[in-house]
Amino acid sequence: MAGEQVFRGSDGAPVEVTLLPIPNFSLSSFAALVEPLRLANYVAERPLYSWRVVTPEGVPVRSSCGVAVAADEPAERIRRPENIVVCGGVDGWAYEDQAALALLRRWARDGAYVGAACTGAYVLARAGLLRDRRCTIHWESLDGFAERFPDIDLRAALFEIDRDRFTCTGGEAACDMVLQDIAWRHGGDIMAAVAGQLLHDRVRSGRDERYLPHQAWLRTSHPVLVKALTAMAANREERLSLVEIARVANVSPRQLERLFRRYLDSTPARWYLRMRLTRARQLLIETQMPVTWIAVACGFGSTSHFSKNYRQFFGVCPREERRQRRAARDSAAAPPVSRAA
Question: Please, are residues 83 and 115 in contact by the beta-carbon 8 Å criterion?
Fold first, then answer.
């Protein structure tokens, strides 16, 4: 496997990777970035990579699962990092630390390769570092990111490497991305040994089929249902009729309904509604779009019809959910994790 260059590095010297986790970062994505680096050193029996964790002012930062990670040093002390990776997670779209954004811009100007995992692409976009670059983001944030940054080249890929920028969707895709760099620098044997240590049986490229939103709910690999759900996911604003969905899946409407009941314990209409409401929730949380616009974008004929269905499905009306989320986010902007934690 030839691999692909992800990180900047000097010949012969260990590649230095600096990680910047933001509040509520994904611990799984963080580990998927670091563990392949550690194992590359272990397998090769020599230092191929080094890594460090930095945060604003050097305070520990808590992940979305509650585990806090300590900083090796304050971000402000880092002068010219080779590579910097923003580790995002829950509420990455809301990150607005202006000092950190300024640091990212300065590091990029100084020649650092700048990347992001999970929702970290929001941070790079807000810093203005994704202009004229391809990028990707966690599937839950696709619609919200596209709405907030319509001029950025957002791709449906597991990871994107575009010159001095690299982004991945998070989770196992972070591991796939790092394995690409290991293969490119140190060969397929080292990469395969690292993947074996991780029990990672299939190393994917950025162009491999990515995890799509409807797959989160798909509890079967039945080809007819995969076709039907893919068509639904691609047409949430202009809804397809049952007949149109069945035509795409190459079955009769009656047969499609039977398959939905058998494998998903639902109906096509109910499942379609669920997909549209889930998209609406992400737009509600991650954008400033008016509720009326969100209703239209998700295929509802009126705001009242949208609000009624939203309340029935999520137990709260759209405007109240947005208010609650903002209040929770504001209260969380509170005291950082203490160093003694």
Answer: yes
Rounded to whole angstroms, what are the CA distances from 198 to 43, 52, 172, 182, 295? 12, 21, 11, 14, 43
Q: Are 336 and 328 in contact (CB under 8 A)?
A: no
pLDDT value of position 240:
92
Helix (H, G, I), strand (E, B) or coil at 312: helix
Q: CB–CB of 75/55 below 8 Å?
A: yes
Length of the chain: 341
* Beta strand pairing call for 153-154 and 159-162: unpaired
User: Which residue, among 332, 323, 314, has the nearest Cα to 285 in the 3D structure?
Assistant: 323
pLDDT for the residue 167: 98
Residue written as token pair 């397929």: 188
Domains (ranges, CATH) in the chain?
15-197 (3.40.50.880), 213-328 (1.10.10.60)
Strands (DSSP E) contained in the chain are 15-21, 49-55, 61-62, 68-69, 73-74, 83-87, 113-117, 134-135, 153-154, 159-162, 165-168
Which parts of the chain have pLDDT scores under 70? 1, 208-220, 329-341
Helices 172-186 and 27-44 meet at what angle, rounded to 10? 30
The answer to whether the CB of 88 falls within 8 A of the CB of 117 is yes
Q: Where are the alpha helices (DSSP H) in 287-336?
A: 291-297, 303-314, 318-332
Report the Cα 341 to chain-centroid distance in Å: 28
